[in-house]
Amino acid sequence: MLRAALGERGFEVLEARNADEALELARKEPPDLAVIAVLTAVTDGCRLLRLWKSDPGLKAIPLVVVSSSCADPQVALGLGADAFLSGPAQLLDLLDRLGARTGPLAAALQPVIPCESCLALVHRLEDRIAQLELANRDLRDRQARLTASERRFRGMIERSSDVVVLLDADGTMRYRSDSGQRIFGFEDDEVLEFDGWVLRAVWTPGHTPGHLCLYEPNHRLTFTGDHVLSRITPNCSLGSEDEEIGRHPLIEFRASQQKVADLDTRLGLPAHEDVIEDLPGRCRYLMQHHDVRADEVMAGMGDTPPTALEIASRVTWNKPWSTFGIHKRRSALGETLAHLDLLEQQGRVRRHTDDYGNIRWERTGR
Description:
Layout: H1 2-8, H2 19-28, E1 34-36, H3 42-54, E2 63-66, H4 73-78, E3 83-85, H5 88-97, H6 116-159, E4 165-167, E5 173-176, H7 178-183, E6 191-194, E7 197-203, E8 212-216, E9 221-225, H8 240-244, H9 249-261, E10 267-270, H10 279-299, H11 308-312, H12 326-345, E11 349-353, E12 359-363
Parallel strand pairs: 1-2, 2-3, 9-10
Antiparallel strand pairs: 4-5, 6-7, 7-8, 8-9, 11-12
């Protein structure tokens, strides 16, 4: 509403999600007036005020705080704001009254000298912000060191001749080193013949990294395991271990569905549930299902960048989200993350980390 009202008054409006983005935009294209809602993110808003007024190229540009929920406007003013307005209506009224003025806009904003108690509070806030910035920097450094260490360790595993397998608590295999396939498993497209049967191995990662189907061309049937089921859609989740190795489960799953659909096959024999009479048709349905789910994930983002958990709670599942237990929610969250990963790879969404370390998602406009 405020953006539209400012546009009607001839203002070009540039928006930023956080302090760093606001400073970058302002340095590239200095504005006539900066407006922030400081309490939408207290730490980031206070930090922006402090950095803005300490920047030689920006400190002369007036900065106005607009907030209807601030209990003490002197806090904002003490941090360096040129004016405090209790709501968007006051800002629009101020700009209307300034419409006939000439000269710098800052001259129309009355300076305020904050009281001593307010200055003390401001100093405490600045000290706390500095502590948080140091803590965040230390956390990022630790994460970088941990990631580098894991990368070195994973490289050692990949080069090892020993078999290394990582399992979830429920026994689901999340990782298997290449040596495991060489020793125990079938290679993709490898053929096994016995008693007049010809079974060809079809590697179908997605539901799990090492999932394998077996295709019998003479009878036009495929043993689909958990890759294709007759009633439910196989779970396809993104976990932290997938991100560490650059794995994209849903991209793999879709490619594997297409791979099976392209076989000259008719019947599907899954690991559980019923026989699938039209296996290629079922594969196409599952791919379409995930297209619809991806659109739901996009719609679930709303206007304010949400977390993956918030998006998961807005997606349509087979039962209401409110009835889910902890294990069902974990599964739904993993699927939502897999769809966000797919959308990110397609350039339709992007992620950013807020001041509290939460990963939030937003549309890119593509």
